[in-house]
Amino acid sequence: MSKLSDLILKMTEYEGDCVERVNHFLKVWAFAKTIAEGENFPAETREILEAAAVVHDIGIRVCLEKYGHCRGPAQEKEGPPLAEAMLPLCGYTAAQTARVSFLVGHHHTAEGVEGDDWRALLEADLLVNAFEGGMRKEVVRAAREELFRTGTGLRLLDTMYLSGGDVQ
After folding, report:
1. How far apart are the C-alpha atoms of 158 and 144, rounded to whole Å?
2. C-beta contacts of 17-22 below 8 A and 24+ residues apart
3. Intervals of the chain under pLDDT 50
4. Which fold has domain 3-162?
């Protein structure tokens, strides 16, 4: 079994009673993979991005238990230690684990983005959150201007949300 498949199974077990979160991370992973392939990211960047997409919201469960909410800053605080514990169990190296953990700790931070993996994770998460959160077109347009930089991410966003009717 591949490291990624093992990670998806572990995350599904971790989130097993919350099908919505399993579906969310799988959708984010699919868009992240599509962006990475569309932009021709190097294999190592793709591997890190895909792992980060799978575990990006790993902190939600702890946040809900600890704080009663799962706002972005709380997720970015609580998620990295959980990712650091899970990734090595699936065969990710220390360097890969460190970068994925960094991305988990910054997946709601759009300032100071460094790296194609970080940019693509932000774009993939927003592609899913726009639908799941029922974002209005004007909010999607603003996100397009402020956040999206990859050609593939822009193509997906425009096709899905800005070429026709309402987001939902």
Report:
1. 9
2. 18/61, 21/57, 21/60
3. 166-168
4. Hypothetical protein af1432 (1.10.3210)
